[in-house]
């Protein structure tokens, strides 16, 4: 099939490349000319394991190409995926759908006679599909379009695997012809065991938001339990295991650590609450999750202050990892964006290392330095904060690399064994321990 992915951000690029790898003819289109030129040369704008290899492979076999000519791409495609950003509005909580509606208007102007399936892949609030349909049908025949919701469920760092082996494929359409076409499009994944769900468009939109809100709730729940564990001398990992073995609960997303961040949970929890408010429904639980998560980073900063006994000025503090999670370069809503500036402002000297490279956000902050490797980052540390669970950080010989004798480790991901640290006579703090 001939597919057009509008937007070469995380969703559009990964989905487009994977669709091409399944044998479809895919064009990824973006108005950012610089990004398109780089993609044509195989230069990938995001950090995602395995993506660069797939891009080059499918470019070489002619199934994947990149373009800035939206009109040409729409005209020549059978299925059009809207994969543009839906960030939170400035000074608000609702999703900003400006890009979605601007693209929709262009799609309408470029379609003349051939039937097109227009799919919203971007995460959008309930009823967005209705608004897209209204825009497309203005002065156009309803026989030319079918508007569908097909949310993505890709985890950053594992997106390619998640696309190829999805838990479920959700298709929101009441059009039998469209449903049949899309079931055929996804047939290679269905044959591998993916569950195919055909529902209404509004239900499909809400499935995405409800899923992310629930996962955010699980993370926030175990973080609050971890707070209790620290006060009662209990290991939160025992609690997670004991809870997770209950099949009604499940063990995934029951790992305590920093506040949740990234491109999805922060904005989607805010957006679903705003949508509910519009329909005069109070999602009090999710509102509480948002508040608790916001307080999480301040709680961790207080813990750092406690560990250093209030003496932060002139202390050498190393952050191992600054992204919100491992295997991505995504800094959105990462706890480090608050923690590092706050500690630097109090006079701490910050060294940080992240496998995904130096971050522009920290370049202008006084006393914050990027180190090119783990060794140079931790060498003179008084305190090492393990912020992100990169594999690079899971087997460090701290005693041989750190010059100072009385250094402290604050493991915010519980990577290391507290018993082993005690045996090695290293002062160590974890989360919920």
Q: What is the compact description of this entry?
A:
The protein contains 18 helices and 14 strands.
Describe this structure as you would to a colleague.
With 433 residues, the protein is α/β, with parallel strands linked by helices. The chain folds into 3 domains: 2-199, NAD(P)-binding Rossmann-like Domain (Rossmann fold, 3-Layer(aba) Sandwich), CATH 3.40.50.720; 209-294, N-(1-d-carboxylethyl)-l-norvaline Dehydrogenase, domain 2; 296-429, NAD(P)-binding Rossmann-like Domain (Rossmann fold), CATH 3.40.50. Helices cover 43% and strands 14% of the residues. The chain has 18 helices and 14 strands. It has helices at 10-21, 33-40, 51-60, 70-76, 98-110, 128-136, 159-164, 176-185, 187-190, 201-232, 236-244, 265-278, 284-307, 336-345, 360-363, 374-378, 398-401, 418-423; strands spanning 2-6, 25-29, 64-67, 79-82, 116-120, 145-149, 168-172, 195-199, 316-320, 349-353, 368-370, 383-386, 408-411, 427-429. A 6-stranded parallel beta sheet has the order 3-2-1-4-5-6, with helices on both faces. Strand 1, helix 1 and strand 2 (25-29) form a beta-alpha-beta unit. Helix 10 packs parallel to helix 13. The longest helix has 32 residues, at 201-232. The chain starts with a strand and ends with a strand. The mean pLDDT is 96.
């Amino acid at each position: 099939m001939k597919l057009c992915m509008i937007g070469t951000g995380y969703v559009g690029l990964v989905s487009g490349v994977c669709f091409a790898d399944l044998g479809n003819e895919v064009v990824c289109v973006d108005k950012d000319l610089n990004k398109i030129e780089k993609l044509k040369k195989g230069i990938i704008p995001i950090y995602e394991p395995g993506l660069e290899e797939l891009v080059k492979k499918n470019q070489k076999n002619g199934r994947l190409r990149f373009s800035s000519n939206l009109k040409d791409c729409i005209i020549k495609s059978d299925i059009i995926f809207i994969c543009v950003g839906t960030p939170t509005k400035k000074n608000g909580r609702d999703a900003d759908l400006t890009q979605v509606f601007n693209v929709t208007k262009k799609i309408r102007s470029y379609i003349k006679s051939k039937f097109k399936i227009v799919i919203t892949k971007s995460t959008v609030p309930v009823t967005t599909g209705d608004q897209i349909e209204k825009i497309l049908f203005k002065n156009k025949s309803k026989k030319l379009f079918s508007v569908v919701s097909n949310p993505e469920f890709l985890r950053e760092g594992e997106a390619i695997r998640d696309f190829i082996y999805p838990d479920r494929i959700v298709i929101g359409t009441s059009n039998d012809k469209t449903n049949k076409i899309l079931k055929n499009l996804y047939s290679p994944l269905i044959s591998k065991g993916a569950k195919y769900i055909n529902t209404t468009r509004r239900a499909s939109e809400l499935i995405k938001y409800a899923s992310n809100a629930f996962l955010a709730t699980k993370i926030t729940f175990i973080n609050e339990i971890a707070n209790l564990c620290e006060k009662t001398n209990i290991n939160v990992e025992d609690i997670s295991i004991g809870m997770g073995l209950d099949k009604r609960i499940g063990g995934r997303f029951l790992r305590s650590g920093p506040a949740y961040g990234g491109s999805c949970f922060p904005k989607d929890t805010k957006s679903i609450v705003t949508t509910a408010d519009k329909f005069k429904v109070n999602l009090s639980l999710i509102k509480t999750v948002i508040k608790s998560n916001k307080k999480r980073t301040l709680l961790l900063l207080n813990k750092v202050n406690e560990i250093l006994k209030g003496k932060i000025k002139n202390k050498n503090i190393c952050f191992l990892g600054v992204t919100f999670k491992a295997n991505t370069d995504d800094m959105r809503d990462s706890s480090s964006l608050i923690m590092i500036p706050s500690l630097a402002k109090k006079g701490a000297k910050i060294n940080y290392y992240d496998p995904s490279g130096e971050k522009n956000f920290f370049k202008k902050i006084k006393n914050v330095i990027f180190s090119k490797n783990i060794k140079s980052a931790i060498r003179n540390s008084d305190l090492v904060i393990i912020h992100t669970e990169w594999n690079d950080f899971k087997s460090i010989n701290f005693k041989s690399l750190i010059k100072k004798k009385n250094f402290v480790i604050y493991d915010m991901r519980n990577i290391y064994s507290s018993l082993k640290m005690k045996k090695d006579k290293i002062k160590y703090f974890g989360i919920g321990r």
